[in-house]
Specification:
With 428 residues, the chain is of the alpha/beta class. 33% of the residues lie in helices and 23% in strands.
């Protein structure tokens, strides 16, 4: 039996372990916000990886956004050195998941296995990918213990809220220094046959409109901030959204709808605050003097950030001139520029080659509609040789009854393990 055949056999034998590992990860409810159970999942991964010969570090992102004593931002970095000098391949997965939301028919944190699919919040995004990378690394090390270089696996916090308590913090501390790490794979759910080279840009901002409080029976004595915000939203509908829909990118963004500029109204708040669920009274009669929205603007490589900001402020400034008593405040929350790795970069070409070998068809090169932690590895870590590759259907992320297919995970495990062999074994 050849070493490669032994590797494939070892992977096949680990199918049940892969399922169990994915289920256990899903059952740790790492909800963000606020950032629950980060230490629990890091401790779990510490026990798992230490038992397989990895040296582990638990790293808290002190003073990062969201870090506090109640919700500390814990991360784990594990490393297994080979028998000889060589390059380092790093698998990075975020451990946080978003809110559950409504519409589930399965237990969001049950990890139920039904018809070859594992269900749960984070199954697809991206605990299934984390599990796949661990199984791939373990199988590779068991078959090739004398490999060259090193393998690292990290589980990081806060990707769903910007990654500043996770990969950004680690990058600032030098964990992704190109002198230490040469290849990075992020097992985000971009499908088993696709290599993700990067992502669109993002600009997040809060807009507030102002008014004057008054009695609700005499609104003419006040000034309704919600109506002012309605005028903003109307201008977005008539002017901004149609303009964005006309713009297309050369970036290979998936799904197709993300090839254009997009914007989401993330939230709206105005008037009286909502009362507790046990409140049985009636609302007071007041004209709202403030209304706020949060916008999530995703932009293309072809769109300068100043233009993205400017077309929103132009609308707001126009309303200030044309609408009586209109005034606003705009606060930028965050921005991320588009990021792209070359398709002939070593890690991209290696994974693409292994996809071709495993599936018998060329890999597809894509870009993500949303940002992910590549942005920090690229700009803070100064490491360009980074892609996303992992099992799962991207469109299932953040949806009810999120799942990961076991067969898809097994394919990704093989692609990842073969990629390790291509990068860390001596060439014949």
């Amino acid at each position: 039996m050849t070493d490669l055949t032994l590797l494939l056999t070892r992977i096949a034998d680990k199918r049940d372990d892969l399922i169990a590992l994915t289920q256990e990860l899903i059952r740790i409810p790492t909800l963000n916000p606020p950032g629950e159970n980060y230490r629990d999942i890091c401790d779990y991964l510490d026990r798992r990886l230490s038992a397989h010969g990895f040296a582990t570090q638990l790293v808290r992102a002190f003073d990062a956004p969201g870090d506090c004593e109640k919700y500390p931002r814990w991360n784990i970095v594990a490393r297994r050195d080979g028998a000889h000098a060589g390059e380092c391949v790093h698998f990075n997965s975020h451990t946080d998941v978003v809110e559950v939301g409504k519409g589930w028919t399965t237990d969001p944190f049950g990890g139920d296995l039904i018809d070859g699919k594992i269900y749960g919040r984070g199954a697809c995004d991206m605990k299934g990918g984390l599990a796949a990378s661990i199984i791939a690394a373990e199988a590779f090390i068991e078959v090739f213990p004398d490999f060259h270089g090193a393998i690292e696996i990290s589980g990081t916090a806060d990707e769903e809220s910007g990654g500043y308590g996770g990969v950004a913090y680690l990058a600032q501390k030098g964990y992704f220094d190109p002198r230490k790490v040469q290849h990075v794979i992020i097992p985000e759910p971009l499908n088993k046959d696709r290599v993700c080279l990067g992502h669109r840009g993002g600009w997040w901002a809060e807009i507030e409109t102002f008014g004057e409080i008054a009695h609700g029976s005499m609104p003419f004595l006040g000034d309704c901030a919600v109506r002012h915000m309605g005028a903003v939203l109307d201008k977005f509908e008539t002017d901004l959204f149609p303009a964005m829909a006309q713009r297309r990118t050369d970036m290979p963004v998936v799904p197709e709808g993300a090839r254009q500029s997009t914007m989401n109204i993330n939230s709206i708040h105005g008037g009286q605050a909502e009362q507790a669920d046990d409140f049985t009274g009636l609302p007071a009669h007041c004209v709202p003097d403030s209304c706020r929205i949060v916008i999530d603007r995703r932009f293309l490589d072809e769109e300068p950030l100043d233009m993205v900001r400017g077309e929103v402020t132009d609308i707001l400034d126009g309303l200030r001139l044309s609408r009586e008593k209109f005034d606003y405040a705009l606060t930028e929350i965050n921005h991320v520029l588009p990021s792209m790795t070359d398709r002939d970069a070593p890690i991209a070409a290696t994974i693409a080659g292994q996809i071709q070998t495993v599936l018998g068809k060329p890999a597809k090169f894509v870009a993500s509609p949303g940002t992910y932690d590549q942005k920090h590895i690229d700009r803070i870590g100064k490491l360009k040789n980074c892609v996303a590759y992992g099992p799962g259907i991207l469109e299932l992320a953040h949806k009810p009854d999120e799942y990961i297919g076991v067969d898809d995970m097994m394919v990704s495990v093989e692609v990842m393990a073969r990629s390790l062999a291509a990068l860390l074994l001596p060439k014949d």
